[in-house]
Amino acid sequence: MALYGERGYEETTVAEIAERAGLTKRTFFRYFTDKREVLFWGSELLEQQMVAAIEAAPASASALGMIGAALDAAAVRFEEVREFAGPRHRIIAASPELRERELIKAASLAAAMARALRARRFGDTAAVLAAHTGTTVMHVAFEQWVDDPNQTAFQQIARDALAQLREIASTG
Amino acid sequence: MALYGERGYEETTVAEIAERAGLTKRTFFRYFTDKREVLFWGSELLEQQMVAAIEAAPASASALGMIGAALDAAAVRFEEVREFAGPRHRIIAASPELRERELIKAASLAAAMARALRARRFGDTAAVLAAHTGTTVMHVAFEQWVDDPNQTAFQQIARDALAQLREIASTG
DNA sequence: CTAGCTGATGTCACCTGGTGTCATGACCGT
DNA sequence: ACGGTCATGACACCAGGTGACATCAGCTAG
User: Fold this and answer.
1) Is the CB of A30 under 7 A from strand D?
2) Cα–Cα distance measured from residue B141 to residue B78, given in angstroms and rounded to the nearest whole number
3) Which CATH homologous superfamily contains domain A41-170?
4) Is strand C in 7 Å reach of the CB of B26?
5) pLDDT (tens digit per residue) in A2-48
6) In the CATH scheme, what is the homologous superfamily, with its name and number, of domain A1-39?
7) Which residues in chain A have Cβ-Cβ distances shorter than 8 Å to B164?
């Protein structure tokens, strides 16, 4: 991340990263499948925690209610890594390649949450819609959170965004 | 698309595509920035038409109402290319690289629709949420449409999906 | 203690996507 | 017939990524 920050993602070569870490290019590619992947370490963990939140949600909850629980779980994780979130986000935002990778991570997350929702007896279409809506809300909230000068809690921003979505969907 | 279909995307080399088309690798890259991009020709057109639908929607419409209009516009386009949609979709679904590209196209579409919604005086967050929700509905509907043995109209599937989303969001 | 196994790393050769640069040649208006 | 513009080809080059093999440390069995 230091190198990507200093010289930009495109201009940084894998050989350089490896050298700075005291390894070989070949070894780098044994740890990370990709030059991109190195920026997406924690993503499986986040996915697991959000899925777990859906699995643990009360049976009385609605689909979007369970998504709300998953977002609360994400909030915990995000606050833990707040200090790296900003720089990392700027690096990703500056590179189309990295944005692509971020989007497919989000899609994978959505698919996992959709599976979890189906397991909670929601219908197919409903589960997929709710899950994707959840990642959308997460990203919208993330963008507001990451550059917020007041350091408002992610949980609060996400809950507001989710409420706003409900409002949009019920109006008209 | 023929070559990608025959031998798979990864196994097809740009030199081969160029040869089959009677050109050079170099010339290929002057037309398409990417090996991937060749599968996403019509995407700007689709984007323009969906944005135009939002711009033309009656002022009384809600945000999701305008998204509905945009989906109707997409329906027209999709029906025009129905015969290629299936094979193309299968090729893309089989390759992570291509899925990434598809996702960023969807994100670009969502951003364009969000801009259009802001221009129609919707709030920032509302516009972004509605726009992303629209692309989500579009993809869900597309998956149902593309392999539907009854050849149900895209418009109908999309409208059903949108209605289902409204229901999810208002329940609980 | 040593022989042999295992797993992590380095070395090297190679392929392919992608780009910069220059040459070639077709077409076009004058 | 002339000069200019534009598309294409030819070629060299770089970086991401992979396969194959060598090396070496640590461990375990006898």
Assistant:
1) no
2) 11
3) Tetracycline Repressor, domain 2 (1.10.357.10)
4) yes
5) 899 999 999 999 999 999 999 999 999 999 999 999 999 889 999 99
6) Homeodomain-like (1.10.10.60)
7) 125-126, 129
